[in-house]
Task: structure prediction
Amino acid sequence: MIYLRHYIIEKNKEAVIVTDEGEFPIWIRDFEKHFQNLEKGEEIENSELLVTLAIRREIKKKAIRRLAAGDITRRELTRKLLREKVYGGNADPEWVEELLAKLENAGYIDDNGYALRFMEKSLDKFWGIMRIRAAMREKGFTDEHIDGALEKLSPDFVGMAKEYIEKNLNGCDRNTVYKKMYQRGYISEEIIEAIDALNIEN
Result:
């Protein structure tokens, strides 16, 4: 890889190194540390480092943009970033974990808070616990996050089931109500208790 020139983008704190294989934007601090003494036409001995730094800069920017767009779990963001291919390569998994740990410590990632918000919205839709757990696991929440949100919110699933049945399944027979509520993620015991309390017959 041959160094041709570079230019600085102060507002982005970036130095873009132009080579015979393309342009590689890196942070100015990395440029000053590793590449500022390069001369035109010189072979870049640590070209692998240049590519790695360019990848890390782009992945960090993608992480910040995604976090700015709305809630996402650390696990889901990890999967997303590891799939990203930039400058012909992927970010190192250990470095991605270090990056996300820093972002989490800075408050940009809050799985516990997100778990509460997600569960509150799910409860507003009258979802049962099985459906909530499945949806939250798909989003990347751990069982610890799910159980923590459940403990804080303490939802009354039987009461929710009764309210939903009265509003949406009035006039349906027992078997139909059971199937509909099971599809919404309620467990058998909750459905039967709600059906019995409402005196729904076959």
User: Anything to note?
Assistant: The CA atoms of residues 52 and 91 lie 8 Å apart. The first strand starts at residue 3 and ends at 9. The mean pLDDT is 95.
